[in-house]
Amino acid sequence: METKLPKEVVLKAVKNCVDVYAHENDFTVDKSIPGYCILTVEGTSSMDDWVTNLKFLIRSDDTHRGFKSNAMRTLTNMVLNYESLCRDRILVLAGHSLGGATATVLADLMLPNTPELHLVTIGSPRPGGRGLRKRLKDVDHLRFVHGSDIVPKSPPFLTGYVHTHPVIHLEDVNPTRFDRVADHNAADYYTAVEKLLS
Fold first, then answer.
1. 87 partner at 20 to 30 Å CA-CA among 20, 50, 116, 171?
2. More confident residue, 106 or 86
3. Is 68 among the domain residues?
4. Greater model confidence, 91 or 160
5. Structural domain includes residue 125
6. Is 2 domain-assigned?
7. Distance set, CA 197 to CA 28, 105, 151, 186 (Å)
């Protein structure tokens, strides 16, 4: 696993992917580690989020239309809540599931003005096509997949969707037969990443 990020930052980003679900907003901004700002986006938590996930038939700029609209909503909410990302800190975008895909699209939107940004995603679906992958090819992205999690296999490859970076496969922390849905649990991702980095 190659990254410029310290282990402490990677673990904090993954932990925030678990904890963001308890917050009122669909994102958190964490500046607890000196020199870093971790923006974490919430994954699927409501019926509206499932509708967003299903908008894969139409792409905008070779990006999943639903994920792009979710990214724009997150940016708008940050402005409305006066959240600052601190330009003097290294930006880390993180998310689980829909949040991981949204964080990837946010990276695409922010990259022209934020050349040093990093991505940490867990259980993210494919966010777009080859054009998106090409634009993000130089971004440091830790793309974790736990066990046999089914979500990273969507939307279907045959529809032109791809991941932007290679997978970092995490050992299944609760191995049972036919657990492709159970392997998507964010808390299990944290346990598996903690084990990988220890």
1. 20
2. 106
3. yes
4. 91
5. yes
6. no
7. 24, 26, 23, 17
The reply to whether 130 falls in a domain is yes
Lowest mean pLDDT among 74-83, 117-126, 132-141, 182-191: 74-83
- Rg over CA atoms, the chain: 15
8 Å CB contact between 142 and 119: yes
Q: In this structure, what CATH number is given to the domain that contains residue 108? A: 3.40.50.1820
Structural domain tally of the chain? 1
- Helical H runs in the chain? 7-19, 47-53, 65-80, 98-110, 130-135, 186-197
| Angstrom distance (rounded) from CA 118 to CA 3 | 9
In total, the chain counts a number of residues equal to 198
Residue of higher predicted confidence among 143 and 161:
143
Average pLDDT over residues 21-26: 85
Q: How far is 153 from 176, CA to CA, in rounded Å?
A: 19
